[in-house]
Amino acid sequence: MKQRKLLSQRHPILYFLAVWARRIKRQVTWRIDNKTYASRRVSEKLPFRIKKHQSVLMKKLGDSNVEWQVNKVTNLRIASRQIDGIIIKPGETFSFCKLVGLPTKKKGYLLGMELSFGQARAGIGGGICQIANLVHWLVIHSPLTVTERYHHSFDPFPDDGRVLPFGSGATVFYNYRDYQFTNNTPHIFQVNLWFSEKCLEGELRIDHELDYAYRVVEKDHAFVKVQDQFFRKNEIWREKLLKFEGGKVVDTELVTKNFARVAYVPDRYEV
What we know:
This protein is α+β, with helices and mostly antiparallel strands. It contains 5 helices and 14 strands. It has a 4-stranded mixed β-sheet.
């Protein structure tokens, strides 16, 4: 089934006007929403680690431009500086877009891959969603509350060394597609980011050790063919475990359901 073009795709000026209007709306929202946004970054790490994860920097993404991948690493290094060491106190909200700001050439950002209108294309600052993906994975292993999250409505490339469940990330586009979470606990949290030779590394830390932990699992994953179009579906669940009772599961929660269009032909699928 051929995808019908949106009006903004047929008339690019309408797209830019829509983006401009949404960005203005977000700027106003930031001023009047009565939220306290996390802004303090410190080099000293909080004493207890909740979760650590690493994300490979150079990935095979179909036949996409290799230069976009190289440039993405530069973009990630620039954006990560605005997040590394961020402290989230009780009552504060973490906003990815508010911390990182608008990616521009002046700040050193390069052309990287963006996913838009069902296809990959080049954009200044492309690829920094990888940070949002990593941070979201850390956050859903904690008692922090995700308050704003978006994910792509399509799956553009076949898996190549995928570690995390499909649809467990977060996409951002300055500034109206933000990734936000709020600290509704009495504890202080901290996000730390750094780079190894091949990976973007990250961890979530806390000021007091918790007596419970979280495990995130994928269920009911499958590819489905509907008429001549392929889709991918799954469910992501979170289990709360008591550390000192042999990992006893005391709560189970549905994090998200995914049903996304696939831009390739999967090896196996249901009809």
